[in-house]
Amino acid sequence: MQAGNAHYRFAKDIPVTIPVFPLAAALLLPGGRMPLNIFEPRYLQLVDEVIGGPRLIGMVQPALDGGLREDGEPEICEIGCIGRITSFAETGDGRYLISLQGVCRFRVVQELGVKTPFRQCRIMPFAADLSEDPTGSEVNRLALLRAFRAYLEANDLEADWDGVSRAENALLVNALSMMAPYGAAEKQALLEAPDLKTRADTLIAITEMVIARENDEFGPGLQ
């Protein structure tokens, strides 16, 4: 069971309706942590309403095709991830600093017509996420670390290799997917991967393509 799922072991433990927070290129995955700086009034109200209850927020991206609803708000992707507020602080200027821990992914069944300023959806949770094997035995860890190291070297970046070496595969794959500075389409592909092995393979493929593209763009000039 993922570390973020201590309160949620079965699909029936997840509310059928949750508030959603559309945020482009933001990826939350089961067990992962996402810090958020909340300042828009509607999302301040969202936090106010959930903090005393289950503390669950559905993180979801705006639709990748840029589609808009009649009221001008963006359509949203069909799949997102539920996060549970695990830390909360209020700043002197009225902002909230919160941290979400990923619980499980969900599929939007229906967006509800509500009077709240924030959006709410009826959802179907991905029950398999609640019991995912943290060892991720089918993940090609060596290939994943090879791609990660190559990306860091190509961009003159460092990593906490001691922490990386201690991390179980599920945590490693999801953390690297969330950290990767890729675009909205790539983030959604990682989110929608049907299982951990496929997510790892997808992350490796995206990383290798990015490195190859960077090498083409910044390689030797014309002779």
Radius of gyration: 19 Å
Name the helicity range: 25-40%
Runs in which pLDDT lies below 50 for 5 or more consecutive residues are none
**How many E strands?**
6
List keywords for this structure.
single chain; 223 residues; alpha+beta; 5-stranded mixed β-barrel; 6 helices; 33% helix
Protein model, in words:
The chain is of the alpha+beta class and 223 residues long. The protein is built from six helices and six strands, in the order E-E-H-E-E-E-E-H-H-H-H-H. Helix content is 33%, strand content 23%. Strands 1-3-4-5-6 form a five-stranded mixed β-barrel. 32% of the residues are buried.
Task: Itemize the secondary structure elements and their pairings.
Elements: E1 17-22, E2 33-38, H1 41-51, E3 56-60, E4 79-90, E5 96-111, E6 119-125, H2 141-154, H3 161-166, H4 169-179, H5 184-192, H6 196-218
Parallel strand pairs: 1-3
Antiparallel strand pairs: 1-6, 2-5, 3-4, 4-5, 5-6
Helix pairs in contact: 2-6, 4-6, 5-6
Short description:
The protein is α+β, with helices and mostly antiparallel strands. It is 33% helix and 23% strand.
